[in-house]
Amino acid sequence: MEKKDIDWSNLGFGYIKTDKRYVSNFKDGAWDEGVLTDDDKVVISECAGVLQYAQTVFEGLKAYTTEKGNIVVFRPDLNAERLEQSALRLEMPAFPRDRFVDAIVETVKANDGFVPPYGTGATLYIRPYMFGSNPVIGVKPADEYQFRVFCTPVGPYFKGGAKPITIRVSDFDRAAPHGTGNIKAGLNYAMSLHAIVTAHKEGFDENMYLDPQTRTKVEETGGANFIFVTKDGTLVTPKSDSILPSITRRSLVYVAKEYLGLKVEEREVFFDEMKDMAECGLCGTAAVISPVGKIVDHGKEICLPSGMADMGPVTRKLYDTLTGIQMGRIEAPEGWIKVIE
Ligand code: PLP
Ligand code: COI
């Protein structure tokens, strides 16, 4: 398909309706075969499980145009696995993993005119999701579900792209101990909206959430995991049962060890350690790696030595290697890249 007339280099992180989306329905204990459709509207009962009790889970991944001109997606098998984990936690049926990957491929292929060209800085964000669709009034899981995949071309998640951002320590918690922080459920994001709106009003780009039990350990932000670089060049990333197992973070841990020869620690990270860190970044599909220049804790500023002008040197190497793998400039580990066309 011919490329759409879009100003690729000036895209923000927003929704643009594309031509096709994938839909499959679950009824009487089975998924139907699924179709691509032009219809971007969802019609469900006023009493649908998703509307009453927020029974919905989702994923996020991207398609890239490589240096050679292929369209590829990054590790969709891991999104398939995570969607399954999320669905099971909310008593929803699993969508078969191989069918998940096929649905991604079909949706991207059907919208290939919307995949941003190589070198524009933009990518195609893909949003698979599933929700309870039949009427539910007593608190219980739905019996019928819809799985959908749409996509939209996007630019950077934070305005300014790779420019360091300022975050604040949130007084609100993102997840409860033994709650749903480790799955990708809409409910985790609904409850973060007040915190992000007030953060923006106060001039901050994002929230740093601490562990809800002790409020001494760093968890993650509303939409990304954390990475830190210590002054001796070790990559440190928080380990917690209540954060999302980020595919970007897991990939960066591998890249740091195997491509860059860095020492990596995945462990509890105490907020008290922030003052000793050399670099900090948010990592995720949407965020890629967004450098953090300043962390504000109730008026007390912690300024990272990497500053507010550019990414720190280790963050830069991680960013260049990860995006190099995604865009086909650097050889990928086996199985990381799914070529679509
Ligand atoms: N943490 C949260 C809360 C997220 O919403 C996301 C985005 O998906 C991530 C972390 C990063 O995960 P991934 O790298 O798999 O996109
Ligand atoms: C993603 O990175 O895919 C996410 O879902 C984060 C979201 C805040 C846009």
Give descriptors for this structure.
341 residues; eight-stranded mixed β-sheet; D-amino Acid Aminotransferase, Chain A, domain 2; binds pyridoxal-5'-phosphate; 22% helix; 7 helices; alpha+beta; nine-stranded antiparallel β-sheet; globular; pyridoxal phosphate
Q: What does this 3D model show about the protein?
A:
This protein is an alpha+beta fold and 341 residues long. It folds into two domains: 21-154, D-amino Acid Aminotransferase, Chain A, domain 1 (2-Layer Sandwich); 165-327, D-amino Acid Aminotransferase, subunit A, domain 2 (D-amino Acid Aminotransferase, Chain A, domain 2), CATH 3.20.10.10. The protein has seven helices and 17 strands. The protein has helices spanning 49-53, 76-89, 97-110, 186-190, 193-201, 247-259, 313-326; strands at residues 21-27, 30-31, 35-37, 56-58, 61-65, 71-74, 123-132, 145-154, 165-169, 206-208, 225-230, 235-238, 264-267, 277-284, 288-297, 300-303, 337-339. The strands form two sheets. Strands 1, 2, 3, 4, 5, 6, 7, 8 and 17 form a nine-stranded antiparallel beta sheet that branches. The longest helix has 14 residues, at 76-89. The termini are close together. The mean pLDDT is 97. Bound molecules: pyridoxal-5'-phosphate and 2-OXO-4-methylpentanoic acid.
Strand and helix layout:
Blueprint: E1 21-27, E2 30-31, E3 35-37, H1 49-53, E4 56-58, E5 61-65, E6 71-74, H2 76-89, H3 97-110, E7 123-132, E8 145-154, E9 165-169, H4 186-190, H5 193-201, E10 206-208, E11 225-230, E12 235-238, H6 247-259, E13 264-267, E14 277-284, E15 288-297, E16 300-303, H7 313-326, E17 337-339
Parallel strand pairs: 9-10, 9-15, 12-13
Antiparallel strand pairs: 1-2, 1-3, 1-8, 4-7, 5-6, 5-7, 6-17, 7-8, 11-12, 11-14, 14-15, 15-16
Helix pairs in contact: 2-3
The structure holds pyridoxal-5'-phosphate and 2-OXO-4-methylpentanoic acid.
2-OXO-4-methylpentanoic acid binds at residues 60, 223, 284-286.
Catalytic activity: L-isoleucine + 2-oxoglutarate = (S)-3-methyl-2-oxopentanoate + L-glutamate; L-valine + 2-oxoglutarate = 3-methyl-2-oxobutanoate + L-glutamate; L-leucine + 2-oxoglutarate = 4-methyl-2-oxopentanoate + L-glutamate
Organism: Eshraghiella crossota DSM 2876
Modified residues (N6-(pyridoxal phosphate)lysine): 184
